[in-house]
Write a structure and sequence with these properties.
This protein has 76 residues and is mostly helical. It has two helices and two strands, in the order H-H-E-E. It is rod-shaped, with a radius of gyration of 18 Å. It starts with 6 loop residues before the first helix and ends in an 8-residue tail after the last strand.
């Protein structure tokens, strides 16, 4: 089980896992454990990003000081 850590640390750890898997120096068992850990970290990162997007989507302050709900995905 992956301990809850902040987004940046999760992403950094995920990158380390990818590098170790790409190096090909791990046993099959070690690779499977790293892969499982990577999946859990990826899911955790996605959940953090989804929550951040929801917060941004919920309230956006306009330059004139008004606040409105806005879907930021329309801008990308």
């Amino acid at each position: 089980m992956v301990k809850k850590i902040d987004f940046e640390k999760s992403l950094e750890k995920l990158e380390e896992i990818v590098e170790s898997l790409e190096a090909g120096d791990l046993t099959l068992e070690e690779s499977l454990k790293k892969f499982e850990e990577g999946l859990a970290l990826g899911k955790q990162c996605r959940e953090i990003l989804d929550k951040a997007e929801a917060r941004i989507k919920k309230v956006v302050e306009e330059s004139d000081g008004t606040v409105e709900e806005k879907d930021i995905s329309d801008e990308f």
